[in-house]
């Protein structure tokens, strides 16, 4: 029923698209229709090229159409949707998103489009291209506005248009001071677009006083080339320069038509991101709340790929733009090096204490592999997170993500499925959470020749290119209908031993301390790196191979969250007086930084009260500089 309701709503919002009329455009058929209350049209060639390449006009669609006419005669479509007088505002770009989906999904247009921008159309073309770089084949622009402070603002050498500047400020809700500091303009943040090597060609007049080249085209092209993008400027001067140099004749339209054709055809075949998404019950609870307005909370729980800016910050920006009536609280709970077991125990403090999410993004597949957690441990941890989340907020929607790394690609090359991906998928399916297999998408698209790991994606900490790949798939998920009904309640657990109530127990609970000292704000003296949340915090410390303590606790699992640095040692521990076991605290990364490291000492205990006894052993690890134990938290699960 949920999927039918979603689809019915989609049909109701798009039904008006079929009220079309046919007009003549230079001897070609022009299909004119209403799109979301806006005029839209596309021109059909007599015989479309394979893959249906197309050009998207931004503003002034009837200006300098000789090039368009040539392209249509060669088999291109030309399209336009009227978002005039919106100055490239995010709300206009969302209309563009919908128009793009309509033409590519309903009409079969190519997945990559050539953008053609004239004057203020540059605000639209670059605004949309930077948000969707993988969907753009090239950008052709004539005297484009690249900084609204130049036009309509007139804050530099240009004439400006005061009435339009007031409209622009009102649309963006900015006063004069705020407008002068506006960052979301075509000139900035070009790294993602440049990483896709989208060819850019600007055609300008030599003495444009309306949209001065020095404040617009020349700055953008310089920034774009510096970011690694291919760009060209062509100055047209063999014609009369009108309107203060802003209007000029296109001397050789066939040259510029050739630029678009060369970069748009043959049409590049692309893998569909939707093929790597299992929406399951989807995100309908969260999206309905976002659409209703008010307040909402979105959390991101993961390792360094979540901690670093990129797909996460792009997702936050997209949600804020798509639902402007909602005041979002974004909880960024990414900590480098941490996987599913740490996430399960820190979920309460790092997420829930900051706010109960309506939408939760979770990732740990990369660190679960590198940190060596077993399949059983991964299930217990991921399941624990979802159980905990759904217990606190039964309507919380969850997205479980598996990110890419060379080890997973190696598994697929060997004909086997990576354990981490299978675990993420299994747990997501069991709880009706969405699952996004970004690791497989990256692997398949590399093998299909769309891009390379070495020169494009570059690292498991993705380049700007990789971050755009990740974000595009997340964006696709946010616009995809659910596949099945939401679960009525929590299902029976996959593993009764899951860390469903995993939590931190404070180090001040340690008793009978000998040699273990409580340090209120610990930081290393050796200059090695640290991780946020594990430096300048309280730590229970013993050094030089001496120290012991006891810990009373209640639950069926006990563990330690330690800082494992160059001098990490080895401990001996026993539970309830049983045979002692040893645990090495030194890791393969300990020589490089003081790494947060989570160790489960026992997760098969009977529920109830227990006592843990820990002693630091004097023996030094072969690569270690000493024998120390630094505990930040105790880990307990009921």
TrEMBL record:
<protein>
    <recommendedName>
        <fullName>SGNH hydrolase-type esterase domain-containing protein</fullName>
    </recommendedName>
</protein>
<feature type="domain" description="SGNH hydrolase-type esterase">
    <location>
        <begin position="300"/>
        <end position="468"/>
    </location>
</feature>
<dbReference type="InterPro" id="IPR013830">
    <property type="entry name" value="SGNH_hydro"/>
</dbReference>
<dbReference type="InterPro" id="IPR036514">
    <property type="entry name" value="SGNH_hydro_sf"/>
</dbReference>
<dbReference type="InterPro" id="IPR029058">
    <property type="entry name" value="AB_hydrolase_fold"/>
</dbReference>
<dbReference type="Pfam" id="PF13472">
    <property type="entry name" value="Lipase_GDSL_2"/>
</dbReference>
């Amino acid at each position: 029923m949920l999927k039918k309701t979603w689809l019915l709503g989609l049909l109701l919002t798009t039904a008006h698209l079929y009220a079309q009329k046919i007009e003549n455009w230079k001897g070609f058929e022009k299909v004119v229709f209403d799109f979301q209350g806006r005029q839209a049209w596309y021109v059909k060639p007599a015989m479309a090229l394979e893959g249906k390449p197309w050009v998207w006009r931004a503003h002034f669609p009837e200006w300098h159409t000789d090039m368009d006419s040539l392209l249509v005669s060669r088999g291109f479509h030309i399209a336009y949707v009227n978002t005039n007088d919106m100055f490239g505002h995010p709300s206009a770009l969302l209309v563009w998103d919908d128009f793009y989906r309509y033409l590519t999904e309903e009409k079969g247009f190519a997945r990559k489009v050539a953008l053609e921008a004239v004057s203020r159309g540059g605000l639209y073309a670059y605004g949309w291209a930077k948000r969707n770089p993988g969907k753009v084949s090239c950008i052709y622009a004539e005297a484009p506005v690249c900084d609204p402070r130049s036009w309509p603002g007139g804050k530099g050498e240009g004439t400006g248009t005061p009435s339009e500047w007031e409209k622009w400020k009102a649309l963006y809700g900015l006063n004069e001071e705020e407008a002068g500091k506006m960052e979301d303009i075509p000139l900035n943040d070009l790294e993602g677009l440049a990483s896709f090597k989208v060819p850019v060609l600007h055609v300008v007049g030599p003495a444009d006083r309306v949209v001065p080249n020095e404040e617009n085209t020349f700055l953008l092209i310089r920034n774009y080339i510096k970011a690694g993008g291919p760009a060209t400027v062509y100055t047209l001067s063999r014609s009369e320069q009108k309107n203060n140099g802003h209007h000029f004749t296109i001397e050789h339209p066939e040259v510029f038509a050739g630029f678009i054709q060369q970069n748009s055809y043959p049409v590049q075949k692309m893998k569909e991101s939707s093929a790597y998404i299992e929406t399951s019950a989807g995100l309908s609870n969260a999206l309905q709340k976002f659409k209703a307005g008010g307040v909402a909370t979105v959390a991101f729980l993961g390792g360094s790929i979540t901690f670093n800016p990129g797909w996460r910050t792009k997702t936050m920006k997209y949600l804020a733009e798509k639902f402007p009536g909602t005041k979002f609280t974004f909880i960024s709970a990414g900590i480098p090096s941490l996987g599913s077991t740490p996430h399960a125990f820190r979920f309460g403090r790092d997420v829930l204490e900051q706010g109960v999410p309506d939408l939760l993004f979770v990732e740990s597949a990369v660190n679960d592999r590198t940190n060596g957690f077993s399949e059983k441990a991964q299930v217990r941890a991921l399941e624990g997170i979802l159980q905990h989340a759904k217990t606190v907020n039964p309507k919380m929607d969850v997205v479980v993500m598996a990110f890419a790394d060379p080890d997973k690609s190696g598994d697929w090359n060997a004909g086997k499925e990576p354990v981490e991906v299978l675990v993420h998928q299994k747990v997501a399916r069991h709880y009706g959470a969405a699952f996004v297999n970004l690791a497989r998408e990256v692997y398949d698209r590399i093998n299909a020749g769309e891009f390379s790991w070495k020169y494009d994606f570059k690292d498991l900490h993705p380049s700007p290119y990789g971050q755009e790949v990740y974000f595009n798939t997340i964006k696709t998920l946010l616009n995809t209908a659910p596949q099945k009904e939401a679960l009525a309640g929590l299902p029976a657990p996959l593993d009764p031993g899951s860390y469903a109530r995993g939590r931190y127990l404070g180090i001040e609970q340690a008793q009978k301390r000998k040699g273990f000292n409580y340090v209120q704000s610990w930081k290393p003296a050796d200059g090695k790196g640290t991780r946020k949340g594990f430096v300048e915090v309280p730590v229970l410390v013993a050094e030089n191979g001496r120290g012991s303590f006891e810990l009373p606790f209640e639950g069926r699992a006990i563990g330690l969250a330690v800082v494992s640095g160059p001098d990490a040692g080895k401990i001996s521990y026993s539970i309830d007086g049983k045979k002692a076991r040893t645990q090495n605290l030194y890791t393969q990364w300990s020589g490089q930084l003081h790494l947060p490291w989570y160790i489960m000492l026992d997760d098969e205990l009977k529920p109830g009260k227990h006592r843990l006894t820990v002693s630091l052993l004097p023996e030094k690890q072969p690569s270690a500089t000493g024998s120390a134990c630094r505990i930040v938290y105790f880990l307990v699960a009921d």
